């Protein structure tokens, strides 16, 4: 039972590796709230944002001043999203 869980976890992690190494940020803290179906990704140790912006695709960008410090993905389990939605007029 535990071996299957470990194998499944490794399979998912291996699938993510190529995506993570392409990220411009090298440190990330990730947390998934299964009950709320919300994925939190922080590029700095979790902290309060001074500004945020909701995108059309259910993604919330969190800023501290002008620096992007985190992304919150609502309804995270719904999967693929429209990718060309950008924040702060930047694409």
UniProtKB/TrEMBL annotation:
InterPro entries: DUF2283
Superkingdom classification of source: Bacteria
Classification via Pfam families: DUF2283
Name of this chain's protein: DUF2283 domain-containing protein
């Amino acid at each position: 039972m535990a071996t299957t869980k470990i194998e499944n976890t490794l399979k998912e992690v291996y699938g993510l590796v190529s995506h993570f190494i392409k990220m411009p940020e090298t440190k990330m803290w990730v947390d998934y709230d299964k009950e709320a179906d919300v994925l939190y990704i922080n590029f700095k140790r979790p902290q309060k944002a001074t500004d945020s912006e909701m995108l059309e695709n259910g993604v919330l960008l969190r800023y501290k001043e002008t620096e992007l410090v985190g992304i919150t993905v609502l309804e995270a389990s719904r999967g693929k999203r429209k990718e060309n939605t950008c924040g702060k007029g930047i694409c």
